[in-house]
Amino acid sequence: MKNGKRIIALAATAALAVAGLTACSSNGGKQTITVWAMQGQTGEVNAAKQEVAAFNKANPDIKATLKFVPDMGTALKTTKADALPDAFEFDGETLASLVYAGKLAKLNGLVADSSIKNELASIQAEGTYSDGNTYSVSQYDSGLTLWGNKSLLAKAGVSDVPTTVDKAWTADQFTGVLSKIAAVTPGHKAITFKENYNIGGGWAGYAFSPIVNSAGEPLVKDGKAVGSMDAPAVAAAFKTFASWKQYSDPDADDSAFQTKRVALAWIGHWATPAITSSLGADAELIPLPNFGNGTKSGQGSHSWAIGAKSAHQQAAAKFLEFITQDSWINNVTNQNGAVPATNTALAANANYAPGGLLALYAAQLNKSCGSANPTASCVTVPRTISPAWPFINTTFSAAVQSIWDGADPQAALTKAATAIDQDYADNGEYKK
Amino acid sequence: MSQMTQASLEQAVIARKRRSRKRNRAILSYTFLSVVTLLFFAPIAYLLIGSFKPKNEVLSGLNGFIPQHLTLANYGNVLQAFSSDSTGYFYKFYFNSIVVSAVIVLGGLLVNSMIAYALARLRWAGRNLVLSLVVLLMILPFEAIAVPLFDLLNDYRNTLFVQYIPFIASAFSVFLFYTFFIGLPGEIQEAARIDGAGPWRVYFKIIIPMSRPVFASVTILSFLAAWNSFLFPLMMVDSADVRPLPLAMTVFFQQQQKDWGTIFAFGVLLILPVMVVFLAFQRFFIQSVASSAVKG
Amino acid sequence: MANARLSTKGLFKKRFGNDQLAGMLMSLPGALMLVLFVVIPFFTAFVLSFYNIHLSNGHSFFMGFEQYRRILFDPNTSPIFWQSLGNNFVFALMVVPVQTGLAIALALLLNQKRKGIAFFRTFFFMPVVFPMSLVAVIWSLFYSRDLRGMINSLLNGISAGNIGPIDWLGTPGLALVSIAIMSVWAGVGFQMVIVLAGLQEIPLELYEAASIDKASKWQQFRNVTLPGLRNTLVFVVIITSIFSLRLFDQVYILTSGGPLGSTSTVMYQSVTSAWTDDNVGKGSAMTVVFVLIIIVLTLIQRRVLRQEREIK
Q1: Which of A345-349, A416-420, C108-112 has the lowest mean pLDDT?
Q2: Which of these CATH numbers, 3.90.1150.10, 3.30.70.3040, 3.30.1330.40, 3.40.190.10, describes A28-138+302-337?
Q3: Best residue of A68, A192, A270 to probe chain B, by most B CBs closer than 10 Å
């Protein structure tokens, strides 16, 4: 392999002479930092452009160059630590694997404490690795609930619709609600679980791991999935979940709820703009059903970090402080419907105040379980903060998909849990 | 006489019957051809029509074929998503794809036809070894070695070079050339060699001019593969400066809420150059694929 | 006599003596690239298959033959591999005969001397120039399990609502068939063109002789067309089999190997292990097993063909 590399190196030198690798450099006392952002929806792209332009204006000694990356997950996986940009946006759930790969810089002492401490408790938990250090900050957090169509629910005769976490429907009540709705909708479907997001492709890791937590277990307890992910209570919960498939609109056109084909949607905050614009005051947030240990939900969204090998970490830290100011947070969350990630921005937003349209999101995130095992009183659970998460995610999601397709829940979950434990063992429990 | 008229009458009836049978068969034939054509063209029509539809009208059963509210917005979305320094420019992706594909096709024609000629027409020690290597590698799919290849070439990421260099030599192309060269009549070549022409001269002056069909079909097949190349660029390219067209499409697939209209519009723009070339040269195209493959 | 021998030798040398050098030189660039970019990566994969190693981080753990044991024998992790291998063969058994038969049928249709044949030929071949990624996306919408899916909508319309919506990609027995149908659509044009060329190579005299013998159309097809297409069909069958064994794109986009593993293939397992699960060692071990299977199949096939040739 070494030899092969040398031969290729020889053969390629000529061709590469033209290509010249780019790196961050200083010109005329001005520091240049490279910033990678995800190329998401148009609104997010515009917001990122605006904040970089504003940052450059506010900091004459720094020039930030913004690059959008179509598939950030792959780019971060395949780029070596020394080739990473100074600051970059990433999927918060991959934090631990990036730290484990030596790609992220500790933010403690780099980014002002006041910035870090103003972030929601859920975000601080999400950005903290098992070594106790903070590695990321965020502009927004996520919200995962049901959206309900008030008039369709009323038409189906569903009364006492819960809108706070302590009143969530039990799973059995929920089954009844679904069958009532299906009786009145034209296609006899009641809900969209957003199957079009691909359950087995990772959607389950976010959207349906709260079912595990609501059945009283974390996905992984003390580095072991057997005994928690596949506990009998969890298997029973997924048996109920699979029985709801008959009420589920496949939603391939991504608009089952907006076009009133169904009365409920099991969905994240990003749908808020589309839903409020099509249903208006007819839409309301409803907590996910309770499988015994209280309703649970997901948390965590895009995060920002500094490259471990960046030569301009101070400048990059300034950039992170800049974009986590409330004004810039509001600029992007107004576009994408996400939950502002600082206590001050959230408190100032009437939508999230008690009685507001999105109050449930804030109420849930205020009761973050953090990285501890979920109790009956907390609500949002971060995705397992471990370098094993990408594997846990694909394995668990594949198991949920197979249950959805008719596999025995207990067998599917035990198989997944066994594979996850094997992965921990194979990697020396990720202690290296 | 009456017998004769009887006979000619019968003949006339038979002839008419035959003619009408012939006509019936023609009608049957055309009907069947049209139905099959419809089946083959339906998904393509769906793509084309969908690319001009608002996002919520693309997926609507058979109505997907009915143009209702046509719009150019989807095409606007594609172009608008790549219209600044930080996102890269759409035309640049086209350019990158063209350069990479051109190098793969042209380099591949030379390299693969030479090795095929040496294997098919020259006698040398080591020939059998190389031949069995080619046959074995032909079956090995690229996906199977993508990760080690990534590891080997990661120092050259974000270049055009890394996108074409591994794909110039292709066992499949060698195989296509080889089967064609084996089928060429040997006499002309022998005669030329007796006249003192060396293998190089025979290759350039006799073999290449005789082999236009196979060169055409390898051009087409390797161009299609290169133009649509995705997995390796995904691993190797994050910079917009050298991003190829199919990779840019992931922007629209990465989003939770997939906008099929825009994805279809991108698909049309992706396929457009290929379709133009195909429609312009389709006769030649189909003949060449056929005549080179059939010798196997 | 000695002189004559010398001159033959000289003639031979003159004719073929520089073949050795030319052969090697002409093969050099291609062979070198194939070694660099295919052979070496393959041997690298072989080495990696003995490790637990990740693309995303630098950590690695030596595992010996453990990856192979898990793929082939472990009761928790091996069933999916065997299921995938089985799916590969089932897929080949569906696609090879159907696609070849359809290719012959379409080629016969197009081999008539009628007006506008070129027009139809263009349409039959058109799917071939489409990238599989795009084709699979379009078909995923066709196969949507509600009535918004094109196929369900069509069936529902034809049957006046009696054929209910079918879950084409979500029903274990059906999903692989659905993928096969799409693959045939995408690929048959290529095979058709090859068969068409094969048909046109069959001498017309053979058909004339057959019709003088009062052979029926079917007898002509059995006794003239099929034997005349023999070489062409061998080529078509080999190519289609290879593509069946390599099946990946369609599965990745349409079903992710589901439902319940019913559309998973060996390449799908290999790529998702190495890439999605970031378990390069496992993916590499599958590649090695896959190549061994291919080698065995190739040897068997060569043996069968040789026997057949000897009988002839």
Answers
A1: C108-112
A2: 3.40.190.10
A3: A68
**Contact between B60 and A255 using a beta-carbon 8 Å cutoff:** no
C22·B30 Cβ contact <8 A: no
List chain B residues with CB under 8 Å of A52. Answer: 86
Q: How many CB atoms lie within 10 A of CB A418?
A: 19
Residue C248 in any domain: the answer is yes
Q: How far is CA B190 from CA A3, A91, A238, B200, C50, in A?
A: 42, 66, 75, 14, 52
In a domain, C69, yes or no: no
**Residue B28 pLDDT > 90:** no
Measure CB to CB from residue B145 to each of C120, C157, C287 and give the nearest one. Answer: C287
Taking CA–CA distances from A252, the nearest residue in chain B reads: B59
C126 plus C26 within the same structural domain: no
Give the integer Cα–Cα distance in Å for A252 and A246.
Answer: 16
Q: What is the number of other CB atoms lying within 10 angstroms of the CB of residue C20?
A: 15
Report the residue of C146, C147, C156, C169 to disrupt the A interface, i.e. the one with the largest count of A CBs within 10 Å.
C146
Torsion angles phi and psi, residue C119, rounded to 5: -60, -50
Give the predicted TM-score (pTM) of the model.
Answer: 0.89
- What three-state secondary structure class fits C29? helix
CB-closest option in A71, A197, A271 to B234: A71
Residues C120, B125: C-beta atoms closer than 8 Å: no
CB C271 within 8 A of CB C283: yes
**Could you report the predicted ipTM of this complex, rounded to two decimals?**
0.85
Residues 28-67 of chain A with CB under 8 A from chain B are 36-42, 45, 48-49, 52, 65-67
- Percentage of chain B beyond pLDDT 90 is 35
For B188, other C-beta atoms within 10 Å of its C-beta total: 13
Domain that holds residue C242: 82-311
Torsion on CA atoms C139, A401, A268, A257, rounded to nearest 10? 60
Task: List, for residues C38-65, the tens digit of each pLDDT value.
Answer: 999 999 999 999 999 988 887 889 999 9
Q: Which of A5, A39, A195 to mutate to test the interface with B (most CBs of B within 10 A)?
A: A39
From the CB of residue A107, how many other CB atoms can be counted at a distance below 10 Å?
Answer: 24
The total number of structural domains in chain C stands at 2
Answer whether A426 sits within 8 Å of C63, measured CB to CB: yes
**Within an 8 Å CB–CB cutoff, is residue A9 touching chain B?**
yes
Q: Are C246 and C216 in contact (CB under 8 A)?
A: no
**Domain positions in chain B:** 2-50, 79-293
- Cβ partners under 8 Å of residue A265, min gap 6: A146, A147, A191, A192, A194, A256, A257, A271, A275
- Read off the pLDDT of residues A292-337 as tens digits, 9 standing for 90 and up: 999 999 999 999 999 999 999 999 999 999 999 999 999 999 999 9
**Identity of the residue numbered B258:** K
Is C246 part of the contact surface with chain B (CB cutoff 8 Å)? yes
Q: Which CATH architecture has domain A144-298+366-379+396-416?
A: 3-Layer(aba) Sandwich (3.40)
Which among B70, B64, B35, B63 has a CA at the least distance from the CA of B47? B64
Instruction: Tell if the CB–CB gap between A274 and B154 is shorter than 8 Å.
Output: no
- The CATH architecture that domain B79-293 belongs to is Orthogonal Bundle (1.10)
Q: Tell me whether residue C62 is in a domain.
A: no
Is the residue at C66 inside a domain?
Answer: no
Sign of the dihedral defined by the CA atoms of residues B51, B53, B58, B63, in that order: negative
Distance CA B84, CA C61 (A): 44
Identify the three-state secondary structure at position B126: coil
Nearest to A16 among B60, B84, B156 (CB): B156
Beta strands in chain B (DSSP E): 83-84, 88-89
